[in-house]
């Protein structure tokens, strides 16, 4: 398959996904993601089926109206599987002390970071930043593979 037109994707990946990873159960899908064939960007839509936190259904309905109004423009990406979530968590926790690696969920991680922040605010801030950087790299890699499968070349742009 020949590469299609180059697309420049602009997204604040860490900010968009950080909220997902704070959830108790990473197997719940909090966002639906749509690829915009015109701009090459990604549209993030809260998934109202999650039971973890209240969802602004008005905002969801508005965004769904946008992405469903032009089916030739927007293509829904497959959600992360439970295995993909677990793999990202497992690989990220590999660099942490045993008591954190064995936590199994991000709620434990954030309780740990909250405790750490009381004594070592700089270290806690760095840890949160590392978390964002790691998940950004994983998700960019996954999105790039997904786009290449559809014939798009990808130029990543920060901001």
Rg result: 17 Å
Count of helical segments?
6
Topology order in helix (H) and strand (E) letters: EHEEHEHHHHE
> For the report, how would you describe the main beta sheet?
3 strands, antiparallel
Beta-strand content estimate: 5-15%
Count of domain modules: 1
N- to C-terminal distance:
30 Å
Structure class = alpha+beta
Question: Low-confidence segments, ≥5 residues, pLDDT <50?
Answer: 1-30, 50-55, 97-105
How many strand segments? 5
- Average of the residue pLDDT scores: 56
Task: Give the fraction of residues assigned to helices.
Answer: 40-55%
Q: Order the strands across the largest sheet as they lie in space.
A: 3-2-4
Overall shape: it is elongated
Write the SSE topology:
Blueprint (H helix, E strand, L loop, with lengths): L6 E4 L2 H9 L9 E6 L5 E5 L10 H12 L5 E3 L5 H12 L4 H4 L4 H14 L1 H29 L4 E4 L2
Parallel strand pairs: 1-5
Antiparallel strand pairs: 2-3, 2-4
Helix pairs in contact: 1-6, 5-6
Please give a structural write-up.
- This protein has 159 residues and is α+β, with helices and mostly antiparallel strands.
- It has one domain (7-157).
- 50% of the residues lie in helices and 14% in strands.
- It is built from 6 helices and 5 strands, in the order βαββαβααααβ.
- The protein has helices spanning 13-21, 57-68, 82-93, 98-101, 106-119, 121-149; strands at 7-10, 31-36, 42-46, 74-76, 154-157.
- The protein has a 3-stranded antiparallel beta sheet, with helices on one face. A two-stranded parallel sheet has the order 1-5.
- Helix 1 packs across helix 6 and helix 5 (106-119) packs antiparallel against helix 6 (121-149).
- The longest helix is centred in the last third of the chain and has 29 residues, at 121-149.
- The radius of gyration is 17 Å and the shape is elongated.
- The chain starts with 6 loop residues before the first strand and ends with a strand.
